[in-house]
């Protein structure tokens, strides 16, 4: 067996997309996948170190690891009219230099937030701690991600949707790129292609057997939310749109990378398709 480290967040959509493989519902050929669950910012930091073979990442930091990791076409999360939310207490008015809790320096929402609110003072913390930090006044505001966007303390309200920030910066009515998967370039190309195809099958099977998989995840206490909220959340971030990058999603990623380049976050402009696994190799190899 070929062991492959598959690092992902403990968020419901990541668990959903990868556990069809873990449960043996997909032909994994001669690969043995080791699931590693870490919060997204830790995964981003480990990707910068080149730690894992395959890892979930925030799209907003991919240009920083492009030489060591290729982008995968599957297990992608985009917002369509929704996304992370900037929240504050209802009795709080934000000043220009407000103190804000973000889920990590390298997350996509943090990238867009810092561009839009250049005078705000970010404090980085685990996403599970952000809501309470806003409630108790440790920070003036915070950006909620993952399941937190669906249900938060009644003393809080939304100041700004990251979806709206994206619309103002991108200006093209594109879906909001949030996160995806990257694979280590040091793996042989034929292996990388096989692994990508296995992961595509995993996300496809997860969607085909959604009710069964959700019941199993809840029964085994592998997700933090359940019932209708889980179903709603997965419809947002783990749907048929997550199986494989579409042309529209690639266009949105190109726009994200363009915005980052124009604001000096990386040295060179990049195009998404230049950093995907070259599928033509598989055709040539088998011809």
TrEMBL record:
Pathway(s) the chain acts in: Quinol/quinone metabolism; menaquinone biosynthesis
Keyword tags: Ligase, Lyase, Menaquinone biosynthesis
Known EC number: 4.1.99.29
A GO molecular-function descriptor: ligase activity
Keyword Ligase: yes
Stored CDD domains: PBP2_MqnD_like (cd13534)
Pfam families per the UniProt record, alphabetical: VitK2_biosynth (PF02621)
Active-site residues annotated for this sequence: 146
Superkingdom of origin: Bacteria
The reaction(s) this protein catalyses: cyclic dehypoxanthinylfutalosinate = 1,4-dihydroxy-6-naphthoate + dihydroxyacetone
Described function: Catalyzes the conversion of cyclic dehypoxanthine futalosine (cyclic DHFL) into 1,4-dihydroxy-6-naphthoate, a step in the biosynthesis of menaquinone (MK, vitamin K2).
UniProt cross-references to PANTHER family, sorted A to Z: 1,4-DIHYDROXY-6-NAPHTOATE SYNTHASE (PTHR37167:SF1)
Family: Belongs to the MqnA/MqnD family. MqnD subfamily.
Protein name: 1,4-dihydroxy-6-naphtoate synthase
